[in-house]
Amino acid sequence: MMSCPSADSSARGARLILSIESIAYRGAGIARHDGCVYFVPGVCPGETVAAEEVCRKRTYRIARLTEVVEASADRIVSECALPGGMIVPGCVYGHMSHAAELACKQSQLESFLVRQAGVPNAGYFLESPCVSPHELHYRNKSVFHFCSATRALGYYGDDNRTVDDIPQCPLSVVAINDALAGLRHDTQFLNRLKNTDSISFRWTETDGAVVIPPRGRGFRPCETCLTEISPAGVLKVPVGGFYQVNPEVARELVSYVGEIFKRKSPSVLLDFYCGVGVFGIYAARLGVEKVLGYDSGRDVVSYANMNAAANGVGDRAHFFCGSGLQCVSRLLSASAHAGTSLVVTDPPRSGMEKDVVGALSENPPDYLVYVSCSPDTLARDLRMLCSSGVFNIETVKMFDMFPRTAHFETVVLLSRGK
Fold this sequence. Notes:
seven-stranded mixed sheet, alpha+beta, six-stranded mixed sheet
């Protein structure tokens, strides 16, 4: 990327009139002025805005919105605003219609595929996004931080240090907000908290709202596991373990991946980063004869095996704990001569480890389903998997798992190259 032209330091803070061309990943608008790229949060594509520069980098500038000169028809009154005008941290699309937000994210996904993954005809593979039925009050998990100096209980602000007090979260389910309101009035509970302590809230249809306090200091521990209902069946999840935060979209995603299992009819399915076993158990319940999975978390692997047994597929679905390359190499070898093979991988935000991608490229299955919550690391891994012709992309679908935030989920189906 080219450097911005040099400018007099007195220009900082000056009023700029900018035309917003598009929205970058993570939600800031993109504009160009005097040969330099500006990123402006809180805007919509096509708007003309007044802004002032607040940060200067070698290749770009960051500006603060001061006035919307010509508003987009997609601009709405933000429901993520708190009394006093503060926007809840993370609600980067609160000012934009949901349809416009989805269009921005679909465009961002295509851009990642073209620019970072090196897929020039990415639009051909893109399916219509799966839309969340709820734009607000969908999150089944929220984590609030405590600041002893201000007695604030809320989210970290843009500086990742200051705790912004959040009386109610517009993204959390109503039951979590009710539990939060009760906790904020529990003086005895708050007095036991230390600075930077975190309190987690989880909600399921079965368990209702569950408060997970810091360990020790007289707090009564909460239940060890929760119950989630999914297309794979009834699943037990460790109370502090990972599960998708938007239950309705999560069910759509699992069902979508299940349809791929049905179409491809693998003889063996490998479940990488398996968690509590959602995909592997569902595959076994759909008739896949041999399911093997792994995860680095010993606790979630024990739950995956327990869930497989509870859902009647413990004889065909087996999950192991270990490091990525160690388990991947062993599982790929075990499936090498077992007929049609399919790998489903659902890594954390950091994506797959480089050696795991290498192992998949050296010993590719017939099909690979990549479930990703981060389009940048997804694109990085797809470039390595597809650039040499080892895999070809069949379909790409975005899932609206995190409305109003910068994030989204993606499912990519790849087939082994000929």
